Amino acid sequence: AGPVLRGMAGGAARLVVVLAALLRALPPAAEQKLRFRPPAEAPVRLFTEPELARYDGQQEGQPIYLAVKGVVFDVTSGKEFYGKGAPYNALVGKDSTRGVAKMSLDPADLTHDITGLTEEELKSLDDIFNNVYKAKYPIVGYTSRRILNEDGSPNLDFKPEDQPHFDIKDEF
């Protein structure tokens, strides 16, 4: 992901230069309107495993994130379930897809890997994913494993969850 991220940083720097030039060219009233307009959609983040691990519910005041099927949810509003010392805290700060499918908190099951799951476990995973996580918690991003190919290039087959405005081509 190194070259991709460096490319993204360079693109962001160029974008800032272009936006600054555009703002200088605008009359002051137009600049004022642009500066205070909230973004139309919340930004979507790509999370590496170490980045996601920072949101494990151990620090007070820090958001709590959990990934299922490569989708990162902000489960902070369920702090009593996912926060420090809470019953499902083992699931947060990582992609716990297998654990959710098997309804397991066994550390060996707290992984993205769904190899060998039964049809019943896969159905349970889809039910919980759609009816609990997507229904209850905001999506804040995706795991790098879901968005990038093994070589770090963008996965052009990536489909975001309920975010029709998101286009991976815009991200790279």
UniProtKB/TrEMBL annotation:
- What's a Pfam family this protein contains? Cyt-b5
Could you tell me which SUPFAM superfamilies the record lists for this protein?
Answer: Cytochrome b5-like heme/steroid binding domain (SSF55856)
Q: Which SMART domains match?
A: Cyt-b5
Main location class: endoplasmic reticulum
Q: Which residues form a coiled coil?
A: none
Leader sequence segment:
1-31
The molecular function GO annotations come to:
metal ion binding
An annotated GO cellular component:
endoplasmic reticulum
From the Swiss-Prot or TrEMBL record, state where the protein is found.
Endoplasmic reticulum
Q: Does the keyword Metal-binding apply?
A: yes
Describe the location of the Cytochrome b5 heme-binding domain by residue ranges: 47-144
Give the family, as the similarity comment puts it: Belongs to the cytochrome b5 family. MAPR subfamily.
Q: What is this protein called?
A: NENF protein
This protein's species is Halcyon senegalensis
- The UniProt gene name for this protein comes to Nenf
